[in-house]
Automatic annotation (TrEMBL):
Any Pfam family matching the protein: DUF1330
Gene3D superfamilies assigned to the protein according to its UniProt record, in alphabetical order: 3.30.70.100
Residue ranges occupied by any DUF1330 domain in the UniProt entry: 2-93
Species, as recorded: Paracoccus angustae
Name the UniProt record assigns to this protein: DUF1330 domain-containing protein
Stored InterPro entries: Dimeric_a/b-barrel, DUF1330
Length: 99
């Protein structure tokens, strides 16, 4: 089954965070990740709001976890750690209903 990265982010240092975004994109793509949402309009319905929301789909849960743990992504993440407040969850997608 495919899996989703769902991130909620408050950027506190735009210049440093831009370095993260520049390096993270290729690392995510190298593991089969495709962005479904990257910023854009949103309306917070429940819970704590963060102004940036990102969703990426991976070919599998294991691929999503491997991407996060990869040296390429961890190098990118080093730029985000002091430049943002983030919540990130990896969720396996539900299979479509049988017809």
């Amino acid at each position: 089954m495919t899996a989703l990265w769902i991130a909620h982010v408050t950027v506190t240092d735009p210049e440093a965070y831009a370095k993260y975004a520049q390096a993270a994109g290729p690392a995510i793509a190298a593991h089969g990740g495709v962005f479904l949402a990257r910023g854009g309009r949103f309306q917070q319905m429940e819970g704590a709001e963060r102004p940036r929301n990102v969703v990426a789909r991976f070919p599998s849960f294991d691929a999503a976890v491997a991407c996060y743990n990869s040296s390429e992504y961890q190098a990118a993440l080093a730029h985000a750690k002091g430049a943002s407040e983030r919540d990130l969850v990896i969720v396996e997608e539900t299979p479509p209903p049988a017809e």
